[in-house]
Amino acid sequence: MSSCKRVAGATGKTTLHIDPVTRIEGHLKAEVVVEGGKVVDAKLSGGMFRGFETILRGRDPRDSSQIVQRICGVCPTAHATASVMAQDAAMDTKVTTNGRITRNLIFGANYLQSHILHFYHLAAQDFVQGPDSAPFVPRYKNSDLLTDRNKGLAAVNAAAVDQYVEALTVRQVCHEMVAMFGGKMPHVQGIVAGGSSEIPTKERLIEYAARFDLVKKFVIEKYLPVVYLVGSQYKDLFAVGQGHRACIAYGVFPLNDAMTEFMLKPGVYYNGQDHALDPAQIHEDVKYSWFDDSTTGLHYSKGQTKPNPHKEGAYSFVKAPRYNGVACEVGPLARMWIENPPLSPIGQKALKEHFGLDAKRFRDLGEDAAFSLMGRHVARAEETWYMLDFIESWLKEVKPGEETYVKPEIPDTGVGTGFTEAPRGSLLHFLSIKDKKIDNYQIVSATLWNCNPRDDKGQRGPVEEALIGIPVPDIENPVNVARLIRAFDP
Amino acid sequence: MSLSRRDFVKLCTGTVAGMGISQMFHPSVCEAISGSLNGSRPPVLWVQGSGCTGCSVSLLNSVNPHIKDLLLDVISLEYHPTVMAWEGEPAMEHMYKIAEEYKGGFFLAVEGSIPVAADGKYCIIGEAHHKEISMVQAMKDLAPKAAAVLALGTCAAYGGIPAAEGSETGAMSVRDFFAQEGIATPVVNIPGCPPHPDWIVGTVVVALEAIKTHGLAAGLGEVVKLLDSEGRPTPFFGENIHDNCPYLPAFDDDKMCKTLSDKDGCRMEVGCKGPSTMADCYKRKWNNGINWCIDNAVCIGCVEPDFPDGKSPFYEM
Ligand code: SF4
Ligand code: SF4
Q1: Spatial contact of A84 and A434, defined as CB atoms under 8 Å apart
Q2: What would the pLDDT profile of A274-285 be if each residue is shown by its tens digit?
Q3: How far is CA A178 from the centre of its chain?
């Protein structure tokens, strides 16, 4: 059986369809053209439209944080966060310090969960071989896995598979941490307009801290080392997938009540230069998306959602956001590149040992290695390490028993935008209220930034562009294509 | 044998000590089930329509039994887009092959609703035999061949948020789709947005046990007897939250919370939908017994057929 639909062209080009791309959230198809063992063109198609924007219209604004969480069961806390920030702005509510920190503790626990889930349960099977039992079989035949690369490393493979199982428990424990102040997970009750609904008690904080210690140990002793170990076996994957080398981040985990300082700061990077984030520069194109052409090029605050599922020439339900016309990627790499924090001691040591790199901070990796298939996994692991200290500091800062919630008043009219970062990348929610009801609600999610199709100028989306040059030595087993896509956590 | 008796009793009774055991799950019954779980693993095909993957993520949180034991010892998960190793057309064709090979003998788990507008174009789940397969098509192809369908989560069970007022995709529940298409395969609804992992695992294990004891048709008949008028297994959805809520005495005394962080009283006046909701969250709690919606804020009635429209606004202050 061939591994995917192939259409051989007369010119020595072959078109591959990979549909579904598995181990992601949602429905995604990749269509790549391979020539001379490399990808020369790529199209990414989002195959699902649910229409949250229209479903939200006319509802009580406070309902939105519950509804929008159902956009993604992996990162509901991110959507809840963006939504309540938009509501706080639109309702002119000032969240208490304790409310802000409690929100960070809920959302932070889900960051840990999401990154661990992504590496072990979504991406790891791209590099190591699981047990010979469903759902780990069938799999690609010649998959270029660790076991094939270096027979001596079968032990590494076995360790990674053991960690897969251990990580299932660790991510479950992260969800327990979310639930402590979030009520339950997936889909929390605790992140609400006006703050957070559960005031932390001393006992609860001790329970949270105990679980956090377990997760921290796993991140330091297992996750970080295994990412570098696997990376050292796939050095070639640090040299591919650079894409547009452009990225954007909105800032996440506010460290002050004015929301001007963040654990990871906002910013934009393109053409080799840093720029301050100006939300006015964000527009969405729909020429190649199944939406009505009359809605193209709009700023998100003027955004409209008019599906046109049979539109000629279009190939995706994902709109194409652009910053000042630039296709920017989002996610851990974007945040780490923009913040440029110190690297973990484990990372510094591994980079020296395996790559001869003297790297102290993230940008010391260099643009080529950072903006690469493996670089994105490194960024995610390093970000997980980087946030450990912050979670510890919030645990010290949060005041047991002190108010986390202020009751918001729904105004007759109001507008607000919530900017945050889902674990997988930048997320904004725009809300406008009229007659105390939702008048317009617009969502620009990480998937929109990363997995978009061509814009009105024909410019490829970030993942499409990153696919260019990806090696496909064996057309029957195009394992690198999905490796690249999954490195983004699409 | 990876489901210990202790694990099973825990699964059946919820994690709060001393809350009592539902009739169906008397310890001796639990023992009988856990003692006879050896044998072959039935194939499960898990398809995702218009949903958010939250049901799958929730199932990963299964503690008793651990998700690893469920995947490697209880069922044979032959297709699951978020978990499986393979991808693309061969993965889809594998799914079709299993459905043919095990015709009448596999379970179809459906997560997400089925959007029927625009010829199913609003949800394309992959390609097989060189053509795009919509969720609508996959359901027509697979559901008649399944032994039973598990409609997992409120989207699959009742339409959920993708089918809420304002939706343009024609999203519908499995049972409505079956009625429309004349598909007679039995459906068990396991609602919840998302469903608790115990609700999923518990239902699967009860079904397997009934089938082992009574044979396929009669065993499924036994399972169907456990369902309420909304197609939900009564052991998990047989009791009203409000009638069993720890804040019921406060409600009776008219002692009401004033805000979402004020925990001194019943949550009715801030919007709690416990009175119109049937589920055992009050005793089972969530995430390994850590917390639950009402202790945290309010119940939004996520297991009910009229969620979200009939439960909205969620907050009333
Ligand atoms: S909190 Fe909700 S379920 Fe509990 S008594 Fe009050 S209204 Fe009923
Ligand atoms: S308490 Fe209510 S909202 Fe929460 S999970 Fe149970 S039924 Fe759903």
Answers
A1: no
A2: 999 999 999 999
A3: 18
Among candidates A256, A186, A238, which has minimal Cα distance to A379?
A238
Q: What tokens were used for A118?
A: 């992504």
In CATH, what class is B5-235? Answer: alpha beta
Q: Kindly state the percentage of chain A with pLDDT values over 90.
A: 86
Whether B315 and A122 lie within 8 Å, measured CB to CB: no
- Quickly tell me which residue has 């591959």 as its tokens: A16
Could you tell me the CA-to-CA distances from B171 to A63, B44, B162, B274, B308 in Å, in that order? 21, 24, 6, 26, 14
At B100, which helix (H) or strand (E)? helix B88-101
Q: Does A8 touch chain B (CB under 8 A)?
A: no
Chain A, window 199-258: residues with a beta carbon less than 8 angstroms from a chain B beta carbon: 199
Contact B96, B141 (CB under 8 A): yes
Mean pLDDT of B82-97: 93
Q: Is the CB of B3 under 6 A from ligand 2?
A: no
Query: Which CATH number describes the domain made up of A4-279+324-487?
Result: 1.10.645.10
Cα distance from N-terminal residue to C-terminal residue, chain A: 27
Q: Where are the domains of chain B?
A: 5-235, 242-311
| B260:A197 CB<8 A | yes
Nearest CA in chain A to B131: A5
CA distance A421 to A362: 19
What is the spatial distance between Cα A30 and Cα B227, in angstroms, rounded to a whole number?
41
Contact call for A22 and B82, based on CB within 8 A? yes
Tell which CATH classification among 3.40.630.10, 3.30.70.2470, 3.30.230.10, 4.10.480.10 matches the domain B242-311: 4.10.480.10
**Domains B5-235 and B242-311 are alike in CATH topology:** no
Q: What is the pLDDT of residues B50-84, one digit of tens each?
A: 999 999 999 999 988 888 888 888 889 999 999 99
**What interhelical angle do A202-218 and A154-182 show, nearest 10?**
160
Domain ranges of chain A: 4-279+324-487
CB-count burial class (<10 Å; 0-12, 13-18, 19+) for A387? buried
Q: CA of B309: which chain A residue's CA is closest?
A: A59
- Length, in residues, of chain A: 490
Contact of A275 with chain B, judged by CB distance below 8 Å, is answered with no
